Task: structure prediction
Amino acid sequence: MPRFAANLSMLYTEQPFLDRFQAAAKDGFEAVEYLFPYDFAPEVLAQQLQAHGLSQVLFNAPPGDWDGGERGLACLPGRESEFRSGIEKALTYARLLDCPRIHVMAGLAPAGVDQQVLSETYETNLAWAATQAALQGRDVLIEPINTRDIPGFFLNYQAQAHEIVQRIGMDNIKVQMDLYHCQIMEGDVAMKIRQYLPTGRVGHFQIAGVPMRHEPDVGELNVGYLFDVLDEVAAACDWSGWVGCEYRPAKGVAPNATSDGLGWLRDAQASRPPQTQA
Result:
């Protein structure tokens, strides 16, 4: 069975953020991820992780002016200094939270800017970030995101992301493969798992139901089958990463909304013995 991490930005939102760690542990999660940690001192977050026996497996680097609509800085010419400061801040948090990977959002492609300029800026920034992350033994992740949720996002397709990783040629730049975004943009999800996971370039998975981004078993994806595929391919290529549960519970912020929607997780746990993974 894959190892699942609760995304605390989307799950347990009926509770204050710091209470979500305990809620996730109570429901059997052994790891967490979330979008951004920067509203809290890292020591506060580390205390929650330790108190509830949780691992921090992923968070995002600072995305620019999130409330103003920005969704990352990596592809934006002229923002390199801000990008580098954000990476340094993220790496400080990663060290104090013992988090092995940081997602670096590409950003929205500015109108009127040549695509080649954006690509060169993006790849130069990623190479710099990966160089800094390597000094701490951490990975930098890039994620193709669908154009319905984030119109204008620079990175949209699995092949595009893998080509970028190959061109940069650094072992600690990897792809964050979100099956929700993948299904919306290109489909054929099971075959893409089979195609890309054995390359060694996939650092993390995420799941959600399509099309409404609710529980992963609600909608058009057969997650039981996909979990079987992931188990099979991961075993064959010795991959031992995490699957982040980045979805919005269908019951919203109703009491116990997240816990009540975890039938899919209980089914997965009941049908498969857990894999032995480092």
